[in-house]
Amino acid sequence: MSDPNNPNIEIRSTPQWSLMQRELFWAPNDEKHAPLNTDPDKLKKLAEERLSKGGWLYSSCNAGQSWTHYANRLAFYRHQVIPRQLVDTSRRDTATTIFGHRVAAPIGFAPIGINRIYHPTGELSPAKVAKELNLLYCLSSAGSCSIEDTAAANGFGGDEQQNGNGGARFFQLYWSPDDKVSTSMLTRAHRSGYTACILTTDTWQLGWRHDDAAMGNYAFYHEHGAGDLALQDPAFRARLREAGIDPVKEPKRAGAEWIDKHIWHGRSHTWDKIPGLMKQWKDVSGGKPFIIKGIQSVADARKAVEVGVDGVIVSNHAGRQVDGAIASLDALEKIVDAVGDKTYIMYDSGIRGAADVFKALALGARFVFVGRLWVWGLSAGGEEGVRHVMKSLLAELDIMMNVAGYPDLQGIDRDALESLPKGTYFPGTPDLT
Questions:
Q1: Is residue 336 part of a domain?
Q2: pTM of the entire predicted model
Q3: Active site residues
Q4: Is residue 15 part of a domain?
């Protein structure tokens, strides 16, 4: 195992994450053990055992027959890492920079809504862990906890001079057709130290998910209601008063008012409106970055560059929106070739381990977002589960860079991969979930 006194520890700017492996191997000597198994299949199974049926289905459901989800996983299989030997990896470092933030790795917490259906602490646990590990955290505007409370969990103290800005955090916007509500959310996000706006463009309404539809599994209509993020918003509270809805006495009606009219409202927005929203965020935030999430086509990537966005996230919403769509990793290759030198390209969808992070970086992504992994960690073990899953992912990436012979992130490029033909599939019938 790695020598805990390895001089590499003093050279690099991040902890030597790989030492976690040694700690886990030694732990039985001190009558300790890992809180959970981070193998994605075993982690998923544990989350299923511990969640309610509705919570489990919401975390795992894909659109239609899951073909897009399968395409995501098959694309990762198709690209295979070429290890290098006799390379000096003693100075390796996982740290990188994203929009001026120095973070511990090119890995962020993807924005995922209604976290309280996975654990009572909701968004507070992943926000806290992200700060501890110096990873980027993204809050969904469909979240359970308020913008302000989540920022506080991420280390924001209000008085930046005394308490600092806390962790690096972005705010993901589901674009309400009500300008007052959108402006209010963006203003709250800026005041709470969120330093970029991520507009998700692939989810004006949810895709058809068989299990959720069969169960009527839509938490906003049932036990979840509107959540603190909505109920602490002054513009939305005004809309509730206008509609004559008391959120305390009628939480389900309040939840429906929030989700139906302001989050997954079914009204499409178009490219011609993007400059206006971008200006609105820039005016509110003092010019902070504006990012579009959900880009899959080269034409859309070029359009994003044309309208002047600061970055794009190549994502198919992990296969939860359009069934039978292109794998996000395949889209990434084409988009990097088309606009990789013109905007900051990030990746999301289907990440299950360090090899997947490595492959997305090799294909040209500068940053990668993880979703279901940390959600399953939260579901299985709350804050401790999130911490263990994300620290393990950092350790796995650190170890992979060591054993595969890639001492720095800059060296991870397309020459690091052997790519099999499209249409290549797994031998046998593995569980692709």
A1: yes
A2: 0.95
A3: 317
A4: yes
